[in-house]
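Researcher: Here's a chain I'd like modeled. Treat it as a single chain, no partners, no ligands.
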Amino acid sequence: MNWKKIIGIIALIAVIALVFFKLKNNKETTESKVYQYDKEKPITVNADTIRLQTIDDANTYAGTFEPNKETKISADIQGKINAVLVDVGSSVSKGQTLIQLDNSLLKLQLQAVEVQIEGLEDDVKRYTILTEADAVQGVQLEKAKLGLKAAKVQKATLLEQISKTTIKAPFNGVVTAKLNEEGGFAAPGIPLLQITDISTLRFTVNVPENDLVQFQNNQTYKISADVYPDISLSGKVTMTGSKANMGNSFPIQFQVANTNNLTIKSGMFGKVNLSDTKQEQGILIPTSAITEENGKAKVYIIKNGKAVLQPITISRNIGNKTIVSGGLATGDIVVTNGFINLFDGANITIK
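Model: Modeled as a single isolated chain. Structure tokens:
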């Protein structure tokens, strides 16, 4: 009997057994450290039962106040800035001087033209007398008259250029930006100041297509600013959008007269109220309960202890809640929180 061969076979079998045992032990250790999700295990979620609620803001639409007029002022001619007579926050009136450009060279040119005009006027008088006495030809008188006309046109041009060195306010407003200083250089197209008129404001809201019928051009509606809810404002509809935005809503624009002390500022948020007394009943759910699949809004509802993905139709948002116009009925149980690992058909337990 070949004992060496037998011992070798036994040793090989032992090594193979040891390797197999080690691999099995490593697999069990690894599996014990890895989380194994059990699809049959119930998922704990927060849920709420659907019921009709009073929608206090059903006839309220949020929007933003914007200035009625706003412009950046630049010079019509180029030149050095001699003086800036206003600062940011200054109230200005239409026609008030804001910036004075250097016009000394233009004034000297004007004086030269005025001297030229005086000489040409004397020539016209002289040639008129001589022509009547047949002492000179009439063509000399015509040349003098034409020269006088050209000089007067040049004078008018210089006067217009000098007037443009004084930059004035185009309308009543407030200086909201100062973009240059004394000693700077002004040129056409380079903004120097920004003036904003908030005595009249534009207020814009975005309205779903189903609610457009509630707004009529030239009709007035009650508007309030979020930070000043006690100040009652009146807005007249001046524009209804002809094209919907990406949210399938249409812009409605109102013209609103500001308070005497211009309390309402550009950029503030506000609301337009269609009714103070009418209260609408509807289905409200937390916006966080809504998921999106293929561009369609859906929610998880609980039926027979299982999660069911239900398509819904959204009307609009109010704060952190959403009005649902279709897809849900009173008594439905909607999952409001706890979407981790949630899937259609999952077993559910409610906190």
